[in-house]
């Protein structure tokens, strides 16, 4: 049997892949051909056959659509006042539009799938390369991929055209990282050169079942050679070529398919993220519930009144108006219920079907303004802002807490090597430095008394520089020159540069180059260094102990040419110092701290000399961990922990990360806008604090409160918290100081830990939040990625439920980006993971200012008006119908004609508000940017709070009362025409409807502060459309209608003078209160926004006069 | 009227950028158009006390004269109303109302004397008014068949015996139920509205001071909308031009005394295009309503249409309203350009105009008190 690896015994969730579909030799496990999906990618949701049922099902799962469906069905079933068309048509419209949109998107996906599935792939079969289609690939096939081709499925690299068995790959389409990554072939197969050789391979691969994590893979290959025990090799993410990635700088590779089709990691990553809902949406739903209650109570009131009113049979059934026999026989309860439903149907327009469509369209179309904004376009990146979800546009205007990452977000993440400190001596490379001259390295005035037992300075220096040259994962990118000749680094510097996923490493390696030690390349597992004396030194790279954010360090084990085994380690001071056994710890520590205060990023470097046996042991640990199929991560961490100890400290480095352009200005604006800015970073406290001062997060006047491990070691956490709280409270009364809080990860987890000592000490969480509430800026340093998310969660859950925004650029920010209400990713240097997982992605931190202060502000006021206006116009619409019931014997007689009922929301009043909500600018963009404090005016969802909602509703009710009773008194018992003829009920309804359409449209016109030609067009256009439609609708005997009640009603109305006068009067009266309220509010207690408007206006006037 | 200013923002041409990378740079730069950059030139009005002020004064100044004009016009209109329901024992129609029965074939007549204090100069319009009559009840409003009234012959056909066939054929619409058919014969015109058509006959007599009673000529045409009479309502045109023959096979509505083809002797005013019928078919908006009954044309320029004096209204009392506590009225009214007597419109105009004027004054005060402070105020505080 095959040799089993540690931890594999209980591993059931794995698959066995038979390379080339060859059975394992007898004696091995039985050959059970497993069934895997073919390599067809199906990103489409629907097929031709199931589109209609499935799409309808999806759509009616939405509560609003379902509500309208129910209304429609009720109309179909019972005898309702309005024809089913009135709700059926809008619903049909909405459903159809959505279905068409989704169908089109799905068709595009089908097309894309098709082109992907049918693209040609070369497969090795019986020693020959056969061309086939991508979707015919099966697990176990051996695939040939040529340069610049995309991998058709997830593959295990068997051999590459490069002699060292590596290949380069870009994963731009997967995670946006454009750097070339190196993947490694299995050592036993990397020598294969021809198809025949590859085909002769007899091996199986055992690996985990597919999982979506792009950076994780565990597996094992068993290679069978004639009659021998099979050889097992570990497989990791470095062997797995992902579908979607592209082969670079490598002529061709042979690889075997392990995951195909929908099981590839790329396909598994298609799954969408969880939905975030905005505060506006929540308010909207709350309002909807209120309106639903109003609707139901209206229906109940009318039903009850109806039965009270028609208690006497002469009212119920006067001689002129009998029921049919069938109706009479119905039970009174059923009749009452039917009446209730009929009233519901009559009033159902109060919850408009079109609001959802309009809101969605507004969000969808409105979000284009972000991606169109050229001010948010970054020339350097060649990219502008990106909108990943349009659901949260308005949330950008509601942000109260901003959580920002430091590195790459506030700072450039463009590292520059500043200095290094070797054993207490400081080296500073000059920018114009050449490699050889010593004078460019300034020797610091370090303490020069070396102990006799320690190494000499020279030795330290050698080791230090070599450590930095070796301990990294930097690649050398060979850029093709114009001639197409590939040239290495030693031939011409400008043609090659370093690439790494960590900019710090690049800075360090480049810094070393300036100090005279050039890292040349990694060739055949040998790292080549060009030292000061222009000699090439070669080190055999044995192991790389990769960096991770928990350990916060990385190591390499190399074998020098003299045969020594050396382990070099670099990492954060906190993770190195505890593991150091000798070296000038104090001096280095002092220097590290000094650098940190200056805002530099520091790393410590240490090494350990390994004896042969120690090395063997380390190898054993590593191999064991790497071969494990289960808990590999954990085992690796344990192994690393065992290996990385007993260090000799060599020195420290300092790298500067410059602040991003306008970061300070942005933070200042955010502060002025009333937002609290928190910096969450994994950096050291001193470094982070320096950045905070530089970025004006802390000012010189800011009183800094510290809540760090250092302090809690002296006092108990309890005391510190209470003391800080007292300080904050004492000073709050004077209101002159602003506080800044610094907290570190360790203390934070202590604070967040549930208190076990009982209720006596209270909840630290609350006290902490109380302190935070009074601090304008908070710095959290030494944060693990998950802690960032915890902080966001903590603030989110605090009792004010503030809206949070998280902004970051790296993978370590993803958790907080996902956690916060709004997640913003910076398209940074540390890859695209943050941008991919964010709701919005922007190129630079400075763009946040416009994003929030301008776009967020606009989106918020637009959508707030949209929501309020929609409810308002439907109150105006439906309330007269309600009042009319009192005058028509509660018989559910509709006031308006069916066409008006149907078209009111979908054509007469829909476009003005939609366009308003797309282009409205109550203050100019420049003013918003100049006066960040205007943002406070809309804070806390101020335009959608209950009083505002109540005002709008009352305004709607008032207008409705004016419409109805105005018309009632004007119409009552009198002649409206000059020829003595009388009008009927449809004219009455049409008069009210005309007033209604004009009033609600003009109300919007009054609210419009920014009249572009679009506004003029849609506002006057819809009024005109209403008139033209009415003329047309009443102008013809429509053959398909079984009633002709609107025939000439509108024209007759227009031919009457008093009707005109009434319409004008009623419109004036309806609009009057709102105008007065606006004017009075503006005069008595103007908001900052209103003052800004006036100022802006005066400003312009002055300009015009000059 | 409103504060306005045009802030035309400069519209630069499209800027194309080629970055240092040249071809490698993805050209995703958004277009610099005014729309995409949200910099469309716009008129930015703001409603302040200062800007709204003139509007209020103007509205006041326009509305008040209009209101006065309307009020005066309305007051010049003469209107006379008489209630002849007859639920009062003293009422001349008391007996008719009390003894009403659907089976009465002979109509009961009552005479009501009345006096006009002023002469009615121009054309006088005679209305009948009903109260507490729910013509706007949903069951009632929809109980008609417009296709039948438009002369569709199929809507008058006898429903076939088998239900399948009957569904195919255009019988009177089922909306007419329970007034659609009797004994499988379609009712013409069907529906509750038609069935309950007002059928009192009103006649006016002028009691000459010399004792003779002169009947006043009442014109029964021109009382319905022209479009209704000529387009919407049409008599069915069968093979026979004779209305009686066309309506063969139909029955009259239950409560009617005469079939539809005997409504008038004038063929232009008979059948579905009878104007009394058309007027009734236009359902009223409110439970108290009036409908045009007759027009008293002005004879010559010298004499008033209805001189001052005593008149008699003779009513053929056919229409029961007591069961639902309704009332019946006869109204005589003159008409101006703005229709009948309607003081409300004038009063409303005057009120709104005055309110606007008053508000204008208030705003003026506010503007002076707060306006200056406002302008000098700094936004930042």
TrEMBL record, chain A:
NCBIfam families: ATPase-Plipid (TIGR01652), ATPase_P-type (TIGR01494). Residues 835-1087 form the P-type ATPase C-terminal domain. It holds the Pfam family Cation_ATPase. This is Phospholipid-transporting ATPase. It is a multi-pass membrane protein. Belongs to the cation transport ATPase (P-type) (TC 3.A.3) family. Type IV subfamily. Component of a P4-ATPase flippase complex which consists of a catalytic alpha subunit ATP11A and an accessory beta subunit TMEM30A. The active site is at 405 (4-aspartylphosphate intermediate). GO terms for biological process: phospholipid translocation; positive regulation of myotube differentiation. PROSITE patterns: ATPASE_E1_E2. Its EC number is 7.6.2.1. Keywords: ATP-binding, Cell membrane, Endoplasmic reticulum, Endosome, Lipid transport, Magnesium, Membrane, Metal-binding, Nucleotide-binding, Phosphoprotein, Translocase, Transmembrane, Transmembrane helix, Transport. It is found in: Cell membrane; Early endosome; Endoplasmic reticulum membrane; Membrane. It comes from the Eukaryota. Residues 33-87 form the P-type ATPase N-terminal domain. The lineage of its organism: Eukaryota, Metazoa, Chordata, Craniata, Vertebrata. Residues 120-265 form the P-type ATPase A domain. GO terms for cellular component: early endosome; endoplasmic reticulum membrane; plasma membrane; recycling endosome. The chain crosses the membrane at residues 60-78, 286-309, 340-359, 899-919, 949-971, 983-1005, 1017-1041, 1047-1072. The keyword Glycoprotein does not apply. Mg(2+) binds at residues 405, 407, 809, 813. Its cofactor is Mg(2+).
From TrEMBL, chain B:
It is found in: Apical cell membrane; Cytoplasmic vesicle, Secretory vesicle membrane; Golgi apparatus; Membrane. Signal peptide: none annotated. The keyword Iron does not apply. One of its GO terms (cellular component) is Golgi apparatus. InterPro entries: CDC50/LEM3_fam (IPR005045). Belongs to the CDC50/LEM3 family. It is a multi-pass membrane protein. PANTHER family: CELL CYCLE CONTROL PROTEIN 50 (PTHR10926), CELL CYCLE CONTROL PROTEIN 50A (PTHR10926:SF17). The chain crosses the membrane at residues 46-72, 344-366. Residues 1-29, 158-177 are annotated as: Disordered. Its main location: membrane. It comes from the Eukaryota. This is Cell cycle control protein. Pfam families: CDC50 (PF03381). Keywords: Cell membrane, Cytoplasmic vesicle, Disulfide bond, Glycoprotein, Golgi apparatus, Lipid transport, Membrane, Transmembrane, Transmembrane helix, Transport. It comes from Astatotilapia calliptera. GO terms for biological process: phospholipid translocation.
């Amino acid at each position: 049997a095959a040799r089993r690896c540690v931890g594999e015994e209980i591993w059931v969730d794995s698959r066995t892949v038979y390379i080339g579909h060859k059975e394992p030799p007898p004696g091995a496990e039985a050959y059970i051909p497993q069934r895997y999906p073919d390599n067809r990618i199906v990103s489409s949701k629907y097929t031709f056959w199931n589109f209609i049922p499935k799409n309808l099902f999806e759509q009616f799962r939405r509560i609003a659509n379902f509500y309208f469906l129910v209304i429609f069905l009720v109309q179909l079933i019972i005898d309702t006042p309005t024809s089913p068309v009135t709700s059926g048509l809008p619903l049909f419209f909405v459903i159809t539009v959505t279905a068409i949109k989704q169908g089109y998107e799905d068709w595009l996906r089908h097309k894309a799938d098709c082109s992907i599935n049918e693209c040609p792939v070369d497969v090795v079969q019986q020693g020959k390369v056969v061309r086939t289609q991508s979707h015919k690939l099966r697990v176990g096939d051996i695939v040939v991929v040529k340069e610049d081709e995309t991998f058709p499925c997830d593959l295990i690299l068997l051999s590459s055209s490069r002699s060292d068995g590596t290949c380069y790959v870009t994963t731009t389409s997967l995670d946006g990282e454009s750097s070339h990554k190196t993947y490694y072939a299995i050592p036993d197969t990397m020598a294969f050169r021809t198809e025949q050789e590859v085909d002769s391979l007899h091996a199986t691969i055992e690996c985990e079942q597919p999982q979506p994590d792009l950076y994780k893979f565990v597996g094992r290959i068993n290679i069978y050679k004639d009659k021998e025990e099979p050889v097992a090799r570990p497989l990791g993410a470095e062997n797995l070529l992902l579908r979607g990635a592209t082969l670079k700088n490598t002529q061709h590779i042979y690889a075997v398919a392990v995951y195909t089709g929908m099981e590839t990691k790329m396909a598994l990553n298609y799954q969408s993220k969880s939905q975030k809902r905005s505060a506006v949406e929540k308010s909207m739903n709350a309002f909807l519930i209120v309106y639903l209650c109003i609707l139901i109570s209206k229906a109940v009131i009318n039903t009850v009144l109806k039965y009270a009113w028609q208690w006497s049979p002469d009212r119920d059934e006067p001689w002129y108006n009998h029921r049919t026999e069938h109706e009479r026989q119905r039970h009174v309860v059923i009749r009452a219920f039917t009446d209730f439903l009929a009233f519901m149907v009559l009033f159902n327009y109060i919850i408009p079907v079109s609001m959802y469509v309009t809101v969605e369209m507004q969000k969808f179309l409105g979000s284009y303004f972000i991606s169109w904004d050229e001010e948010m376009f970054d020339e350097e990146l060649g990219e502008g802002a990106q909108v990943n979800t349009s659901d949260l546009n308005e949330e950008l205007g509601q942000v109260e807490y901003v959580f920002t990452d430091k590195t790459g977000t506030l700072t450039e993440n463009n590292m520059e090597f500043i200095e290094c400190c070797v054993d207490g001596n400081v080296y500073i490379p000059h920018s114009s430095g050449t490699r050889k001259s010593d004078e460019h390295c300034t020797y610091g005035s370090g303490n020069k008394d070396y102990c006799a037992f320690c190494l000499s300075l020279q030795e330290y220096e050698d080791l230090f520089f070599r450590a930095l040259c070796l301990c990294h994962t930097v690649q050398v990118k060979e850029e093709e020159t114009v001639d197409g000749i590939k040239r290495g680094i030693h031939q011409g510097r400008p043609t090659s540069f370093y690439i790494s996923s960590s900019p710090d490493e690049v800075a360090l390696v480049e810094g070393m180059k300036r100090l005279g030690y050039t890292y040349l390349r990694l060739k055949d597992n040998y790292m080549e260094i060009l030292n000061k004396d222009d000699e090439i030194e070669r080190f055999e790279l044995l192991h790389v102990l990769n960096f991770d954010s928990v350990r916060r360090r990385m190591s390499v084990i190399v074998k020098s040419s003299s045969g020594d085994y050396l382990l070099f380690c670099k990492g954060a001071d906190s993770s190195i110092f505890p593991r150091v056994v000798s070296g000038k710890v104090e001096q280095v520590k002092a220097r590290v701290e000094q650098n940190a205060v200056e805002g530099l990023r520091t790393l410590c470097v240490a090494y350990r000399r390994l004896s042969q046996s120690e090395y063997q042991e380390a190898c054993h640990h590593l191999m064991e961990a790497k071969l494990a199929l289960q808990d590999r991560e954990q085992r690796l961490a344990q192994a690393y922990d065992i290996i990385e100890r007993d260090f000799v400290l060599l020195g420290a480095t300092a790298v500067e990360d410059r602040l991003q352009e306008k970061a300070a200005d942005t933070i200042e604006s955010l502060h002025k806008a009333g937002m609290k800015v928190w910096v969450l970073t994994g950096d050291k406290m001193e470094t982070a604090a320096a950045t905070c001062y530089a970025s004006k997060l802390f000012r010189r006047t800011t009183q800094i409160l510290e809540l760090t491990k250092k302090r809690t070691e002296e006092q108990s956490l309890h005391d510190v918290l209470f003391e800080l709280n007292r300080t904050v409270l004492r000073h709050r009364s004077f209101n002159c100081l602003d506080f800044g809080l610094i907290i570190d990860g360790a203390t934070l987890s202590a604070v967040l830990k549930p208190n076990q000592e009982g209720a006596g000490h209270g909840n630290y969480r609350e006290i902490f939040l109380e302190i935070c509430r009074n601090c304008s800026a908070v710095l959290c340093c030494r944060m693990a990625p998950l802690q960032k998310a915890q902080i966001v969660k903590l603030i989110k859950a605090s009792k004010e439920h503030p809206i949070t925004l998280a902004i970051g650029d790296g993978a370590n920010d993803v958790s907080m980006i996902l956690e916060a209400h709004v997640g913003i990713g910076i398209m940074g240097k540390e890859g695209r993971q943050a941008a991919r997982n964010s709701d919005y992605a922007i190129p630079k931190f400075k763009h946040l200012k416009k994003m929030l202060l301008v776009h967020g502000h606009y989106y918020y006021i637009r959508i707030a008006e949209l929501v309020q206006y929609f409810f308002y116009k439907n109150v105006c619409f439906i309330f007269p119908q309600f009042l009319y019931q009192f005058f028509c014997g509660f018989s559910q007689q509709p006031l308006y004609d069916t066409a008006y009922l149907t078209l009111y929301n979908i054509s007469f009043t829909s476009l003005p508000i939609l366009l308003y909500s797309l282009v409205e600018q109550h203050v100019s963009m420049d003013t918003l940017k100049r006066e960040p404090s205007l943002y406070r005016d809309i804070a806390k969802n101020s335009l959608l709070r209950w009083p505002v909602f109540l005002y709008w509703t009352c305004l709607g009710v008032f207008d409705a009362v004016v419409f109805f009773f105005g018309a009632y008194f004007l119409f009552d018992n009198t002649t409206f025409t000059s020829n003595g003829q009388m009008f009927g009920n449809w004219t009455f309804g049409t008069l009210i409807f005309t007033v209604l359409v004009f009033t609600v449209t003009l109300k919007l016109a009054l609210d419009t502060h920014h009249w572009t030609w679009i506004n003029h067009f849609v506002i006057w256009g819809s009024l005109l459309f209403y008139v033209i439609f009415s003329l047309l609708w009443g102008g013809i005997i429509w053959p398909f209608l079984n009633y002709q009640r609107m025939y000439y009603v509108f024209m007759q109305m227009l031919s009457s003078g008093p009707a005109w006068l009434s319409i004008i009067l009623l419109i004036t009266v309806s609009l009057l209160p709102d105008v007065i309220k606006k004017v009075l509010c503006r005069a008595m207690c103007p908001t900052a926004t209103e003052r800004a408007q006036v100022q802006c206006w005066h400003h312009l006037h002055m300009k015009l006069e000059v | 009227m409103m504060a306005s200013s045009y802030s035309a923002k400069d519209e630069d041409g499209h800027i194309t950028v080629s970055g240092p990378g040249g071809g490698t740079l993805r050209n995703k730069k958004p277009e610099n158009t005014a729309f995409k950059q949200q910099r469309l030139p716009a008129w930015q009005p703001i409603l302040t006390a200062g800007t709204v002020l003139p509007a209020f004064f103007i509205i006041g100044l326009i509305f008040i004269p209009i209101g006065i004009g309307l009020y005066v016009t309305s007051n010049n209109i003469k209107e006379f109303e008489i209630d002849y329901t007859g639920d009062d024992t003293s009422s001349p129609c008391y007996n008719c109302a009390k003894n009403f029965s659907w089976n009465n074939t002979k109509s009961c007549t009552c005479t009501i004397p009345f006096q006009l204090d002023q002469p009615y100069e121009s054309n006088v319009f005679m209305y009948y008014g009903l109260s507490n009559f729910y013509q706007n009840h949903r069951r009632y409003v929809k109980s008609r068949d417009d296709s039948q009234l438009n002369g569709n012959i199929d809507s008058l056909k006898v429903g076939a015996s088998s239900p399948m066939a009957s569904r195919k054929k255009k019988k009177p619409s089922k909306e007419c139920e329970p007034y659609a058919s009797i004994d499988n014969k379609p009712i013409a015109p069907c529906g509750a509205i038609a069935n309950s058509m007002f059928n009192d006959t009103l006649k006016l007599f002028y009691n000459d001071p010399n004792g003779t009673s002169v009947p006043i000529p009442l014109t029964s045409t021109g009382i319905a909308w022209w479009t209704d009479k000529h387009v919407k309502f049409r008599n069915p045109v069968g093979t026979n031009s004779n209305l009686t023959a066309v309506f063969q096979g139909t029955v009259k509505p239950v409560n009617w005394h005469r079939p539809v083809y005997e409504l008038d002797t004038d063929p232009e005013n008979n059948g579905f295009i009878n104007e009394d019928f058309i007027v009734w078919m236009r359902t009223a908006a409110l439970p108290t309503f009036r409908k045009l009954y007759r027009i008293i044309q002005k004879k010559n320029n010298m004499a008033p249409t209805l001189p001052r004096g005593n008149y008699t209204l003779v009513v053929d009392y056919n229409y029961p309203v007591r069961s639902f506590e309704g009332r019946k009225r006869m109204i005589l009214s003159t008409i101006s350009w703005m229709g009948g007597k309607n003081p409300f419109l004038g009063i409303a105009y005057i009120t709104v105009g005055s309110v606007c004027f008053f508000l204008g004054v208030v705003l003026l005060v506010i503007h002076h008190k707060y306006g200056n402070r406002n302008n000098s105020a700094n936004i930042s505080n």
